[in-house]
Each structure stands twice: as structure tokens, then as C-alpha cells.
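task queued by scheduler; priority normal; single chain, no ligands, no partner chains; default sampling; output format set to C-alpha cells
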Amino acid sequence: MGNGVFKNIDVYYTTDPGADPASDTGWKKAGSFENITYSPSTGTGTNRAATFEFDPVEALKVKIVVRESYSSGSGQEPENQYANALEITTYAVNDVPEDKLEIGVTIDDQSYTGKSIQEIVDKNSITPKNVESLSITNGNLEYKDLVWLGGVTDHNVKFRNLKRLTVDLEHTKMYTETGEETKALPAYAFSGLNNLEEVRLSGVKELGSFCFLNAGNRSSQGLEVFEISSVTKIANHAFNGAKFTVRMKTLSLPNAQIIGNSAFDSGGANFTSVDLSGIVELGENAFKECSFEELVFPESLRSIGRNATPIKEGASVTFLSETAPEMPTITGHTPFGDTDELKEKNAAVTVPGAGISSYYGEKVTNTSVFVKEDINPIFRNWNINATGHCLVKYMVDSKESFAFVPEGEKIGEARLPEVTIPEGKVFKGWSEKEDGSGELFTKDSKVEKNITLYPVFEEKKNTPPVINVEDKELTVGDTFDPLEGVTATDEEDGDISGSIEVLNNEVDTTKVGIYEVTYKVTDSQGASTTKTIYVTVNPKQEVLNEVPVIDASDRVLTEGDAFDVLEGVTATDKEDGNLTDKIQVLKNTVNKEEAGTYEVTYKVTDSQGASTIKTITVTVREKSADKPAEPQKPNKPADTKPGKPSQQSESPKTADMSNIGLFGSMFAGSSGLLTMLLGKRRKKK
């Protein structure tokens, strides 16, 4: 471009390596000037240099903010063609390696930088015992700074009255004694800060042993602000002896993966709940002096030590992993307190449905009954639960047994305990009420909630036996066995048919009449039943012989056809059956060589002499000449050859209808044929 003009230029500096150039936060203004002109073609310009002083001298970064700029064209006056407004450029002023940068702190709301905290205190005549607020915000925090503070070595704490502490390792680099960068505060780093009330840690990943030993234990209120959510590991005794305000009930450690032994072993800890959503290992006595109301352990949990998280009465503990973490096996000790203490706390534990056996013991499943002794001693005195399941507790003679039933499913036979039935009693089922009233539960009952069931018994009542027999009908001459088909059953004894007695039997099958038969049976407990039936003897009835039946139909032939008079003719009899071979032909006038109407008469006789006679009509039709048809003559009579339709082809009726059938056929045919048939009929007569 041509000549350039830059107006309204501001210069800022910062000692914070993480300061955002786009924001004013963390930046201090060093100065400004009106404008710079510059000609790239000649390399000359006006007001191209300006001098600024930074305090401190070793500023880490500088940014130059150009509020307005434009091109002036070809040496002409500015035309207000603005471009690159709010241009921001940052420069590293110091050529000092980052591991040599000074530390930036805020002491009692005043910001300082220096080569060490001690130098800052000495240079600015700060009295350590009067300091109430310390924030380590940027630069480099070296091991020597922590040594000087007094907690690491000789415990001669310089800021002994400090109330507020902030350590920001997101913008500060911290180095170990050997010069290695770390995000871990060493052991005893801030121990002995007895008046501490607020702790804010950001970017800090680990806390060493006794890191905050006795923190706040002389303060009237103790630690009231406690923000350490970035921490992933808390070593043994890190907050040993620390005091927390009574108002702090919830502790947030969402990223903590490892919490060591006695990490919060402090009489001043009053937590009732804690966020341990990332925990993997929880050491013994980690929160020994606490009393938790609610605990949720994530899937990541792998181990938890004894007395790690003591609970209070009525507490709720939930495990999310299907595999139980490693827990102490020392008799009497659990992660939640001593087993004797837990007996009275009425606490509840919930585990995944797929982890029932993993947490509660290999004998505890969702398919069978188990007893208290089968339950893992850690949870033996708890109210045990499993997601997606209902716990059924059975109480029999003050003895407990249990079964996990998938919610909404039937109890099933395998999930019912054995019951000893008292003498003289009958078991009826299970009830939620100890007195046995209300709904009865059986193996087919579905379960929707945790329930306690009691067995229901009732007095055993002897039911009289039952005789199974009905009134009978006989015919004179029949045989009669009074015990045939008679049975007896008893609810208690079962089948007692063998004990039936016949007290009275008057039946005489030789005489018509109505007779009585009386039976008696007695069960094993002496209960008897009697029953009387009536036996009716009916007279013999003479059987009437039915006449046989001849099955034969009228037939139609053509002159010259073969004719078997018995073909297709059958005879049956109700008593004798098939009599076809007994059929006689009484009459047969059929002349198959001459057209006409003839009769055939059949007779059959059964074994008792009953006879039947039947006459059929046989029609013999004239055989037609074999010559071609003449379709051009419409008045010619219809062809009567077999297979072609004509009224004569209809089957004749039976014998009693033969005349009617004949005349019907005559009137349906031609006049010549009618004359011929009549002539032949007269001849037959």
C-alpha cells in the first residue's frame, strides 16, 4: 500500500505468561502516543520511535494496540479509509528462559514480582506474621520458596496468621528441589497454617503428606472455603489435624483418583457427603472422623480401606460398578465402621443387579434363597438392595431368609424357603402381615417392591371321605356287581377305594323293580361316609325284525347293449347285514334287442323270513342309423344317439312312477317315435 498512518496507539505489559492479549485482564498500560506515519517505498517516516518504561523492568510480554489505521493514497491527504482497526501485536520483551522467570504473587491485595517470595517480602518490607492473604498467581514457584515459608523443613512458619491462600498452577510453573517441573505440592508445603480459613488450588494435581497439617485448627471457624477440585491425588495425612467449619457438610473432590490413609483424619472434619466421582483407591481411615449420610462410589473404584468412610445412622451407600472393589477382610472392620457399630445404624446399600454375588457373597444370587450367614460380613447388618430387583425377606420362627426377585417377576419355587409345618396345622401361603391376614403370596405371585413375608398356617381339619357312585339301570337277566366302578377318595388319605363296604344290597336282576344299595367307607382318622344308590331293573324288550332293503335303480339301454340283471343291485338288513347274495330275480321281461320299456322284479329274504320285493324299469332305446347329420334342415328331429342330449336320455323313475316317466318321455320326443313306442308297449301287453 502507499503511505500508512497509525493513530491512537496503546502499549501494555504483563508478567503473566498466560495473559490473554484479547483481554485487558492481567495487563498494565505503559503509555500511548497519537500516530506514526510510514512510507514503505522510502523506508522513512515520522514519529516512528517512542520510549516507555515498564515496572517491573523485566516485563514478560508487551502488547501494542492500534486503535485506528488507514492508507493515505498517493501522498495525498488522509481520506479516512480505515483499516486494521484494533490491531493487536504481542512481543516477548525478555529473552529470559521461562524456567528463570520471576514469581508473581499477591500479598494482602497488592501484586508483587521477584526472584523469590523471600526477596519480595524483604524488598517490600513486608512483615510475614501480619500477612493474611497470599496468592501465587504466575511466574515460577521454586522449592526454595516453600522451604522459606517454613512448612517444608523446620516448620518455622513465616505466614503463621495467613487466612487466605491461593495457588494457581495453571499460570505458574512449579519446580521440585531437583529443578523438575511438577504440579504436586510437596509434603508439609503449607503445614502449620493454623489460622487458615480459605484454600483455593487450581492446576494443582497432587498434595503431599501433611501438606496442610493442622490447617485452620486455631481459627475460630476453621476452613470455610475449600476449593481443590483439580487435585487427583491426596497423600497420607495430607489434612491431618485440619479443622473445617461446621457449616461445610459437602466436600467436592470430583477428580480425586487416590486418597491416602488418614488423608482427612481430623476431628474438625464435619462432612456428611463427598463427591468422589473419579475415585480409584481410597485409603484406610481416609475420612475417619466424618459421618456420612450418603455415598456414591463410581465404576472406577478398585479398593477401599477400613474405616475409610464411616457412616451415620440411616445412611445410604451406592456402588455403581458391577464388580465389588477390594475391601478389608479383617474381622470386625469395614470401610464404613466396625461391624458391631453398624448393627444399630439401619444403613442401606445398593449394588448393580449384575453384581449381587460380587458384593454380597457367592451364595447370594437372584435365583435362590439365602440366609443372613451367607451375606458378606461387611454388609450383613445392612438393608441390602440391588438395582432392578426386589428383596423378599421371609420370617419363620424369628429366623430370617432372603431372596432377590427381578422386579415384576414371579417369586418362583426356587425362591421360596422350606417351611416346617407344625403338628395339626396346614400351610396356606405367605402374608405381609404377621397375623396372616391380607393377601396371600405364593410361587406365582409377582413382586413389585421390597417385602417381608410371614408363613400362614391354619388348623388342620379332617375332611370326610367321598364315595363316587351313581344310580344304575339294568335289564332283567343282567349281572350286577355292587362294587364295580365304585371308588372312594379322602383329602388326607388319598384313594381309599379298598376300604369300601356294602352295607345293603337288595338287587334281584331276575325281577323288574327298583332296589337300594348302600355303601360305607371310613378314613384313617375315623371319619365315615355312607351313600345309597337306586338300581332299576327294567323288563326285557322284544326286538322287532326289520325288513331288508334292496338297492336297485331304473336303467336305460340301447338296442344291442349287454344287460346283467344283477349288476349294481345290492341288499342290506339291519340284523343280518349284507344280503346281496340272497337276491332273487322274480321277473325279467327285458329284450335288449328291441326298443321298449320292460320291468325287472327282485326279492330278498332275511334270516328271520322277512322279505322285500322291488321292481325297476329298464328302457331299451332304438338304435339310430349311422349317417351324417343334415344341419341345413332345421325341422329335422333331434339326433338321439347316445351321448347327445335329448329328453329321452333322462333316467326313468322307479317302478311306481314308471307310467308317468314314460308319458313324459313320449310327449318330449317326435310324433313318429311316440307312435312306435306306443305300438311296442301295446304289443308287450
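post-processing summary
- Residues 38-48, 72-99, 627-685 have pLDDT under 50 and may be disordered.
- The CA atoms of residues 429 and 442 lie 6 Å apart.
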